[in-house]
Amino acid sequence: MTNLFDLQQQRRSIYALGQNIDLTEAEVSELIFKTIKETPSAFNGQGSRAVILFGEANNTLWNDITASALKPLTPAEYFPNTQAKLASFAGGVGTILFFEDQDIIKGFQENVPLYAENFPVWAEQSNGMAQYATWMALAEQNIGANLQHYNPVNDEAVAAKWNIPSNWKLRAQMPFGSIENPADAKEYATVEDRFTTYNK
């Protein structure tokens, strides 16, 4: 079994995605559900939500909904590049939509007012952990992924298309699929720039 450090190194942003993975849709769904289920959250609120789009639904998200939302916002000369990027996401097996349940946050704010201003921050941290854990779980299965943030430009259309509850707020999108081209070498900041330790 791959250890955590090796898995962290293996997880990369993969943009050349294909449909040649070994897992079935049901197996991918179970993997994602189990991973998010075990992700920690403040006060055990468990507010992270996920919707997985496969096949034609994945194509609709990128080549229809998101492309239509971005076209009026993008200079005409740049839109072909935008379309190509969206098509690369659609070319994978699917996309995970990560949401955060706002009713969970509001409930804690009402019941624990001392920390009211912190609950939205903690919810974002938990959702980020769910995204990262899911990304590593996919990487362990040799499934490539990248993380996108086209919300809020496509929020309304996504909610309408897939009957998303109004209290779910879209936080990120994670296209995934087979690794058709590996990521480039990664550069790292120095240890001295990023870490400090003290013992007294």
UniProtKB/TrEMBL annotation:
Pfam families: Nitroreductase. One of its GO terms (cellular component) is cytoplasm. Residues 10-177 form the Nitroreductase domain. It is found in: Cytoplasm. This is Nitroreductase. It comes from the Bacteria. Coiled coil: none annotated. One of its GO terms (biological process) is cellular response to oxidative stress. Keywords: Cytoplasm, Oxidoreductase. One of its GO terms (molecular function) is oxidoreductase activity. Gene3D superfamilies: NADH Oxidase. PANTHER family: FATTY ACID REPRESSION MUTANT PROTEIN 2-RELATED. It comes from Latilactobacillus sakei. InterPro entries: Frm2/Hbn1, Nitroreductase, Nitroreductase-like.
